[in-house]
Amino acid sequence: MNRFERGALAALLIVIVVIAALAPAGIGFLFAQRSQRQEEAARLNTVADAALVRAEDVTRRLSGALGEIGKVVAAPCSPPYLRELRRIALTHEQVRDAGAYDRDGRWQCSSLLGAVSAGMLDGLTLPPPDWRSRDGLVAWYGLARLPGGKISLVMGRNGFYIAADPSLYVDSLDTRAGPASGVAVINTEVSRVIATTPATDVAAILAVYRAAPRVRDCSPYVVRRSVSMPLAVVVSAPHQTLRQRLRALPWAWLLGGVAAGIAFAGWAAFFIVRRLSPRGQLSDAVRRHQFIVAYQPIVDLATRRCVGAEALVRWKYHDRIVRPDHFIPLAEHRGLIQAITDQVLDTVLLELGEFLKRYPEYYVSVNLSAPDLTTHRFLDVLGPAIARQGVRPQQIRIEATERSFLDADAAKEVISAFRQAGHAVYLDDFGTGYSSLSHLQTFRIDGLKIDKSFVDTIGQDAASSSVASHIIDMAATLDVQVIAEGIEREEQAAYLHARGAQFGQGWLFSAPLSAAEFIRYAGKTRGA
Ligand code: C2E
Ligand code: CA
Ligand code: CA
Q: Mind listing the domains of the chain with CATH numbers?
């Protein structure tokens, strides 16, 4: 993965994690808001129901008081009549004043101020009523020019009236359920506001009332119409500051959403990082069989003929080839190496099985790691696999480095089992470890591979180039074969051959090849 790809991936990761964190938090917030709105709507409905009951009750009481005046038998505005008016005004606590007016609306008398003759009502005339019912009831909404001077709601019939405080309609509403709502009572026949709570926007209330059938569920208004009277109430949600709203927000939802978001984002990050981590990608590669094998010819240094090949694994990662040095250590560390070894064997048998069966003189060397050398597992896989293909055990050889002898006793036992089964075993990278020599004494092996570092120095530095020569001498003493690795120059090949190394491998002869190229190469050196 190059820097650009890594940057793009990191950006994608951040975007995904942010979305994963925000989505549940956002949903939590929406639910919180919805639940808040539902609560608000339920509260408004309760207030509206109570307000309508109150408005109907007040109307009924005022009509009752008016009816009582109608039953007074004394002559209008006579002292007994006025006495009755005062009694009625006193017994009905909602009634502020009661009185009479003539056909032209001129004032005749008032329970508070007495008869016109007393002088104070002279010339006072009621304006045309704001509303007139079919059965002769009339009403004025918001009359100021009444005895007492206060704004009054006046109801009249047949020349007599009662006056009341309009706030009767809207006060004493229970606002314990929450912050005070705005309430307005409306006469539905003439669309006039009868009473409102203080500081209510009358024009806005009327507009809402007129739009009532279209008021949406989440509107901050509720309209209730009376079925028995031409009355309606409009309740508006209290105006709340942002802080009040935030305080009232159901935080449980919101916090739940945020917590879920964090958990989800954590999970997403973990999942993505795991998938994108080298280990996750390598596991994927094992699952998807993304490994290919290159075959580097091994040649007889005397005849320069090819005798076999070393199977070298490569990871085909998208359209790139990853070299084993970059993933074998990780695969060993993460317990994936055995699966890779198996896939290498499968590929070798698939690609070269026929070739090996046909030319028994060739062999393929397979590299094993420590876990492959601690149990018989690979041997148990190998035996039946080559038997199915008709490949002889001698044609599959094993390469093991010192690093793979972690459990020396187990390795010794497994190596001996491989040899007994007919597979030659080579000690790889010989001379690079600390105890190469002691291993030669402990393990019975068939050959050793002189590491490229010793071949590199041949012809350059007399002291270190003699190491290769010493190794070859020692191998002769122990009667094991020698394969020299990394031969790049003719001079090296000649030197090694002269010192007694039988086999060699390196770019001088051939780089690692595909199976088809290797078969061609082998044919060429055979002289076929
Ligand atoms: P190795 O077993 O020592 O393999 C020889 C390495 O030297 C190979 O590198 C090969 O391509 C390279 N080489 C061969 N001739 C020359 C040359 O003339 N000049 C230079 N500069 N290099 C040369 P490669 O394929 O990258 O393999 C690296 C190591 O990965 C191998 O070292 C081996 O230890 C390990 N490996 C490869 N395949 C497998 C496998 O299937 N299983 C396990 N466990 N390890 C493997
Ligand atoms: Ca090797
Ligand atoms: Ca080697």
A: 41-239 (no CATH), 290-526 (3.20.20.450)
